[in-house]
Amino acid sequence: MKIKNGQIDFYTRWLLNQLKLAGKKNRMRMKFLEILAARGEELRKYHLQLLKEHCSLDEQGNPVIVQAEGEQRRYEVMDELAFEQDFRELLEEAFTIEENEENKEMLLVLKESIEECPETWAGEAAIEYEQICKLFDTIYEE
Asked: Which domain of life does the protein's organism represent (predicted)?
């Protein structure tokens, strides 16, 4: 199963808020969310690394944050275009959750839970549900 870095928050939020599970099914969801959370933490480290590469740095080597009057705080990026391109690339990178013996039960329980979800969806929620289904549709297919 491949997931783009930029989709981690979406999948995490959807699985937590839209899928009502209990017992073993909930434990398998939480195991999956722990994997996403670990990757999310790596992503934050890579984001900080990009900021350090593209921003002015303070005496401690941290990206400088500026705030003009009436504006939100933001990083002092030296080349916005280059930073945006690098950050977009980072978000488009995919990581793999292996379809191995260790993850098999977790992935199959989640796939079944999503496929058998009794909710009905409309509008944007229907599109989100379709995205979740596509993520799990092809796992463990021969």
From this structure: Bacteria
Alpha-carbon dihedral of residues 88, 16, 108, 132, nearest 10 degrees?
A: -50
pLDDT at 142: 57
Percentage above 90 pLDDT, the chain = 84
| Average pLDDT of span 105-115 | 95
Q: How many CA atoms lie within 13 A of 101 on its CB side?
A: 0
- Confidence band, pLDDT 50/70/90 cuts, at residue 138: confident
- Lowest-pLDDT range of 25-29, 58-62, 92-96: 58-62
99 within domain boundaries: yes
Strand partners, 93: none
Q: Are the C-beta atoms of residues 115 and 140 closer than 8 Å to each other?
A: no
Domain count, the chain: 1
Yes or no: say if 92 and 5 are a contact pair by the CB < 8 Å rule: yes
The closest of 32, 141, 40, 41 to 97, measured between CA atoms, is: 32
Confirm whether 18 is domain-assigned.
yes
Beta carbons of 70 and 106 less than 8 angstroms apart: no
Host domain of residue 32? 2-137
- Whether residue 142 lies inside any domain: the answer is no
